[in-house]
Amino acid sequence: MAKVKTGKGPNTHSTWWCYIVAAVLVLIYMLPIYIMLIRSFKTLQDFAHNLALPEVWYFDNYKNVFAAGDIWIGFKNSLILCVETVVLEIIVAAMAAYGVARSSGAVNNAIRKINMLVMMIPGIALLVGTYSLMVKMGLSNTLVGLALLSAAGGIPATMFMYVNFIISIPVALDEAAAIDGAGVIRTFLTIIMPQLKAVTVTRIIMAATGSWNNYLMPMFLLQDKSKFTIILVIKAAFSRGNSAGDMPRACATCALGLLPVIVMYLFLQRYIIEGQIDSSVK
Length: 282
What we know:
The chain is mainly alpha-helical.
């Protein structure tokens, strides 16, 4: 039997160096988290190097954070903000995307182009105008106003992903539902929306984590400490740490504040990847 000669293709070269580069990048990325965690278990009198393990593992930093109560206020406000933002963003973006995906003409094309343009504008560029508008509308220093602002910032990207999915759904399903007597809203809720599970889960996760980690807008809009989100609680903890020297307690506050989103990513990262891949393919 003749031996088949195999040639070298683009995917047959050795890629061992890729794993080394990936490992180095992971270590660089994890270094600040490692320093934060190690510092949170140190005492004020422990002046060892930031990379060194604590001389004595001091767990009272976490006990003091829980006892102070600020972190509970931050958790509550951030949870309220996440729920409000996700509900507004998903409902508005999904319904708008359905109308855009099922329409045609110059107006529809203009709407899609404007939506793409809005996605490219950084939020910080609109900070002054946005803050002035929120003050005039009486929505500053409120979680509802912050949720409206966060949802408005996420709607263009969510709408873009929904449009790509809805276009791939045959229009014949809408026509069959119309023949059976279903209206537009009922068709959307019972026929279209159930087929958007992947992108919906993805955008829910991304909107929730985005609002949980949002720092810029809460810092400018929220002045009342009772309305502080978890990120502002962490900021206040590090501000006190710089003045009073209680940096270990500030690191403990930061570790507890980041724990919910880390757990969410670990358990739901599969849905994020699947939803983004499906969106790009469609």
